């Protein structure tokens, strides 16, 4: 089995996340994609983040009609900071010995990856996949990718996908401005945001 792990704050989840997961599912021939809403990421210390149970509920609502999409509450339920290497080692233990795990994240992480805790342990348990993010040149990202590969003696998979410049920050701002967001977030997520008056 080939399992993709897609982490993120998902505050809120939007159609860009779902598009990415679907593309990764087909390009990498994955059997399933597990969405991992972040718990208490150290790099977002001091920033206001919606309660984990609500972000989990929104992800669950967004993916419920796709039989190959799943959501994990591991980081949300975990005490203390959430480190990627710990999450991936935990997820790896739940798989069979011959299963492959793919960690999917934005290519902008290639700038910050040297600050990640125990990055070598991440490369040991999974295949590292990065997808293109708007605002960066492909050439510069490929140079950074090569540098990381050489330093850590690993191979990084690069997904050059359609540029969907949608962000959760943009969505939260548009909610405050009263915009109709039904075209860029799943209707089920839009319903939860309206019912609970999130991001107002």
From TrEMBL:
UniProt xrefs under SUPFAM superfamilies: Nucleotidylyl transferase (SSF52374)
Domain Cytidyltransferase-like: 5-174
NCBIfam families per UniProt: cyt_tran_rel (TIGR00125), nicotinate (nicotinamide) nucleotide adenylyltransferase (TIGR00482), PRK00071.1-3 (NF000840)
Top enzyme category: transferase
GO MF entry, a single one: ATP binding
Annotated Pfam families: CTP_transf_like
Residues passing through the membrane, by range: none
Record's keyword annotation contains NAD: yes
Catalytic activity: nicotinate beta-D-ribonucleotide + ATP + H(+) = deamido-NAD(+) + diphosphate
EC code: 2.7.7.18
Family: Belongs to the NadD family.
Protein name: Probable nicotinate-nucleotide adenylyltransferase
Record keywords, A-Z: ATP-binding, NAD, Nucleotide-binding, Nucleotidyltransferase, Pyridine nucleotide biosynthesis, Transferase
């Amino acid at each position: 089995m080939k399992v993709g792990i897609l982490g993120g704050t998902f505050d809120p989840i939007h159609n860009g996340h779902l598009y990415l997961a679907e593309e990764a599912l087909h390009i990498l021939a994955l059997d399933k994609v597990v969405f991992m809403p972040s718990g208490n990421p150290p790099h977002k210390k001091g920033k206001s983040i919606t309660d984990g149970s609500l972000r989990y509920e929104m992800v669950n609502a967004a993916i419920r009609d796709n039989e190959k999409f799943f959501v994990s509450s591991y980081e949300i339920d975990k005490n203390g900071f959430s480190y990627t290497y710990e999450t991936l080692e935990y997820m790896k233990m739940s798989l069979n010995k011959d299963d492959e795990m793919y960690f999917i994240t934005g290519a902008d992480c290639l700038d910050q990856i040297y600050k990640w805790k125990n990055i070598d342990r991440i490369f040991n348990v999974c295949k590292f996949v990065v997808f293109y993010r708007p605002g960066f040149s492909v050439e510069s990202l490929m140079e950074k990718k090569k540098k990381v590969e050489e330093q850590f003696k690993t191979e990084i998979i690069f997904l050059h996908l359609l540029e969907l410049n949608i962000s959760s920050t943009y969505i939260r701002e548009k909610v405050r401005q009263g915009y109709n967001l039904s075209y860029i977030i799943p209707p089920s997520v839009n319903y939860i945001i309206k019912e609970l008056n999130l991001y107002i």
